[in-house]
Sequence to fold (1460 residues):
Amino acid sequence: MRRTLIVALTLTTALAADTPAPKPILGFSDPAKEHALEARFDAALNRDEMRAWLKRLSARPHHVGSPYGKENAEFIASLFRSWGYDTAIERFDVLFPTPKTRVVELVAPTRFTAKLMEPPLPEDATSNQVSEILPPFNAYSVDGDVTGDLVYVNYGVPKDYEVLERNGIDVRGKIVIARYGGSWRGIKPKVAAEHGAIGCLIYSDPRDDGYFQGDAYPKGAYRSDYSAQRGSVADMPTYPGDPLTPGVGATADAKRLNRSEAATITKIPVLPIAYADALPLLRAMSGPVAPPDWRGALPITYHLGAGPARVHLKLEFNWNLVPAYDVIARLKGTDLADQWIVRGNHHDGWVHGARDPLSGQVAMLEEARGVAELAKSGWRPRRTMIYCAWDAEEPGLLGSTEWVETHLAELQEHAAVYINSDSTSRGFLDVAGSHTLERLVTEVARDVEDPQRNVSVLERLNALAITELTSPEKQKEFRDRKLMRLDALGSGSDYTPFLQHAGIASLNVGYGGEGEYGVYHSAYDSFDHFIRFGDPKFDYEIAQAETTGRMSLRLLNADFLPLEVTTFADTVARYETEVENLAKDMREETEEQNRELREHTMEIAADPTKPFVAPKAAEPVPYLDLSPLQNAVARLKTAARTFDAAPSHDDRILMHLEHALTRDQGLPMRPWYRHHVYAPGYYTGYGVKTLPGVREAIEQRKWKDANDQIVILAGVLERYAKMLEDGGSR
Amino acid sequence: MRRTLIVALTLTTALAADTPAPKPILGFSDPAKEHALEARFDAALNRDEMRAWLKRLSARPHHVGSPYGKENAEFIASLFRSWGYDTAIERFDVLFPTPKTRVVELVAPTRFTAKLMEPPLPEDATSNQVSEILPPFNAYSVDGDVTGDLVYVNYGVPKDYEVLERNGIDVRGKIVIARYGGSWRGIKPKVAAEHGAIGCLIYSDPRDDGYFQGDAYPKGAYRSDYSAQRGSVADMPTYPGDPLTPGVGATADAKRLNRSEAATITKIPVLPIAYADALPLLRAMSGPVAPPDWRGALPITYHLGAGPARVHLKLEFNWNLVPAYDVIARLKGTDLADQWIVRGNHHDGWVHGARDPLSGQVAMLEEARGVAELAKSGWRPRRTMIYCAWDAEEPGLLGSTEWVETHLAELQEHAAVYINSDSTSRGFLDVAGSHTLERLVTEVARDVEDPQRNVSVLERLNALAITELTSPEKQKEFRDRKLMRLDALGSGSDYTPFLQHAGIASLNVGYGGEGEYGVYHSAYDSFDHFIRFGDPKFDYEIAQAETTGRMSLRLLNADFLPLEVTTFADTVARYETEVENLAKDMREETEEQNRELREHTMEIAADPTKPFVAPKAAEPVPYLDLSPLQNAVARLKTAARTFDAAPSHDDRILMHLEHALTRDQGLPMRPWYRHHVYAPGYYTGYGVKTLPGVREAIEQRKWKDANDQIVILAGVLERYAKMLEDGGSR
Fold:
């Protein structure tokens, strides 16, 4: 026996000398076993299956409320069931307007009627399903019938209106034409209405989305002349989901607002148009020449207006309640079954939605099949896995939001982490999310092989970052940091209700950057397009399944939840410095601008043959008392280091940490958003504002609010630090 | 008597209390008298006269060798004579090729023949003089008949070829198409030939020069679809002037090179084309999509090639010697008649040349008339004034260069300062030149009223600078500096032979920035265009005459020449720091690039479906011994301060200071260029390279040369410092 033992030990030692120690995994005392499990998981993945699902799911238009959308939900549910998941379809009844009348006419100085439709292409097999395809429109535009002179407002964000003001141009009573980009689209009609415009057109300029980027479809991947970008314009930074049921699930018996009470429906009519339809309008404009960075790639001189181009815009919608079908599939855990790992990807598309969202959906399905295979072969997850295929994401995250609102209490009790995905394609790993998950993400990226280069996806991403960094200092800093830097989450996909309303640590995971796009929210986002340009070999579909699969498996199996708070604390400290610098920079800029106004500098420099209106003097930026926030951050950093240094952790603390960053009262002007570290910007829409209460108060020059929010945020962080201190001293 | 004196003194005191002390003028012990003279000068200026001259001189094409060019020279000479100047026309016989055959054809994959001509416009009265107008061509292109696949090379500068190399594209045996901009045009065929191309097309992209900037002519000012930019492509950074007579005047009996020996004629045929002619060629191209900053404003996807667009380019020229007529007009000084102030502006234009050069020419004529009026009314200049109206500037500064080469010895003996002008228009003062003249220029700008705003042209220029500066640090630095910052002179107009060959302190003076252009070197640079867009009220023609007139008058009348060496020394110190940083930055970039090559970073990041060729490892940048230069600069700064602090100065030293910055051996590879502080860049053409011997050796990674040039430059600056020390201790 003894001898045998010695031999065994010697063998083990010999093995150890030949094979390197297994790479460590946060939360696992036996990483080798987990690596072995993941290798089995990888081996089960099948690209042909994903390709077949993608073709099937994208065969017909499948927006919320469509017949094929329902078919897809049922098909997805049948797959989950076939793999052994406890599967249900949850239905919500949501407001979803579809177009009845769409008219855009140039009525002066010449006449032109916009086509407003995407022609079928022989090279794109599904583009001819004209009767089923929802034509280009913006969901949650109000009905309207307006005529007005056109003003070009660039991206239509607040600072663009400052430029117009300098040029003596007022949009009151006018129709604005904005190009896509620079903000989430819903910001454009919101800001236009705030400035008194009566209508809004949003077009895809080929500079940002068209031939300037690459050959137009079908020759190349990029947006063609009559292709338009559909999309929601609900005021999502106020609240996402069904406009009629803010804060509660849109169940059959839910109490609903009247449509006129819904705060997120636009104040003015808005419609997206293609660049072939925009060109005659823009060409007919006059007035000051647009500033250089406002000019697109159409072969014209861009003018600001107003007019002489005069436009008639008429929009009417069918304001129907339609059913949304969320597919929810559970695999119950063993000893930690009351801890839920939630994974989601929407299934509705604006039209065929091959890339958006089905590229992500089929990778999630394949992941779920792989997990189920493991479960069938004897392994069981310690925690409970929940896969969600959301409906109605496109009109404004309705499927996920209504589900989270319906199940809020149990999710806050049980859900540890939410992992979202959406469109994915060939290229580089792209993860954003809660910074407590930075190490988990880094370790997963370390362990997934890039399909095109003989390195990990982490190494490939790092290589890209290094080639793109311009200064030696930044390169050094990047190389010295061993962790992948996660961007914070704003909005734009189904993580928002989880993270920012329920306070559940969340990630958004995808690949991209090399898969050419150019058909976003158009009728050409098709299977034919995806297999030419998106991910022809389904290499990155596999990589995506390997990546999110590893994240799920590690979260399901870990000894304790693999969260790390030091990275979070350091990141909050960076944000705090940003906010300090924001106030400092604004103060200096205000002083400078006010000095220039006193000295008439801008007026002296301005061309007297052109309109010029000097800005008004701004109130000086006071010194804010940031000390409560600075003290809270300092405490947080210390508490985090002590906490992470402990040999193991209590999941009951870890899984509720993110929730501690929320307050039930929510953010100013938008109580639905409860997270005090991450929020979509009130004037960016998708773009994140970290420490949003403080940052946006400063940006909006509300000094009293800024001081209040500093104290509130400091309180949130102090409470979080105390949780760590209490948990760490266990 | 005594009482009278007291009363007189009291009166003087009282006057002094009411009227502020006259603004000081460098070189004048009695500035009030000079201010009064300048007020009389201003009062004599007449905008109607300038307008009439501009109309007359631009009535027909007047390129060198043309009948109307000769008429203009004779008319200008008759004006000078009528005002009392001792006037002569000096003739040189110079090589000036004109086009015989110009063919640009797309021969594959489709066929297209370029029009290569600018259509007459009813809105532009002189655009129909088709028989006299030289069609678009590049002077000093070789004859050639080549066919090859097209490669798009962006601006065609050396770094663009590095990008092509990364994309696996070789231009050997190909025809390149470059857009105008990014360098002087002559650099494009030079660099293309160095890389093995067989032909070169240069087109005006509407992004840089056309509708992207503003409405096209005749609706607006900007370049229209068939308008092309003529211009010289002689290798001017090697030597300007007649290609057959480098270094000597092209007099009737001058020894001339054979054409085949002339180093400045291009190695490959080159032709400028309009964007309407370029569009079918660029549209027919394929290959990798051009990088974002290479893309212009044509409504296409920009591809690099090579091919499948295949082009036939055939060019033949009449290689004639033609007469160039310089008009030289003198007004002899009194006690300092052997000190010459030289003032020049060319009179030849590519076609009608209303803006370029006649806008500058008529302002110079008006200045000369104003000076003559003063001279008729009793005042006499102490120093000698020489006005020069140059011919043949457009093909490569021939008129000025041949004159300077012919009169080199006497100019170096007598010429104190050369003041050049060229195109001028509405807007902001723009002066570049020798930094010893920075205070003179600042004081003049202080004393000229802006025609549009109730401030001096200096205050208006400062206001522009402040609004354009982005950081508070830069704004503070700018406000604290009391002097106008002169840019250094590279090349592009007739100051080059004076400054960089003869070593005479020089300025180039004009206004602009608000007068819209867009017709540079086209048949539409006309009187009609100028009075709509250039300077409709001739306001800035008056300002230009007031500005250069003041410079001339102050240089003519000053007690001692108004040069200041401290500003020069401080500027050289800045240049020295730039050169240090250049070497440091190149060292870091080289280390980083070589590291990335060792680690395959670029390759890992590159898209494997696209061509990618990694750069070769570069030789590390050694540490250079900059100490001789640093010591010379330190000595220069001390010597300059002591020198400037002396109460008066010896003109014999001041007028020869600039010459001390030259060496008869000239710069490496181009001995004609003798100045060691200012030179046009060997690979920029017009763009200046300060401390050119050292800077270009570093840029070109010639480390041995760099160390040699450091010692040479240090010697030049030490000699200069010694002149100051010797002169200052007088």
Summary: The interface with chain A takes residues 206, 211-216, 220, 222, 289, 295, 297-301, 452-453, 455, 459-460, 463-464, 466-467, 472, 475, 514, 588-589, 592, 596, 600-605, 607-609 of chain B (CB under 8 Å). The longest strand of chain B covers residues 305-331. The radius of gyration of chain B is 27 Å. Confidence is low (pLDDT under 50) at residues 1-16 of chain B.
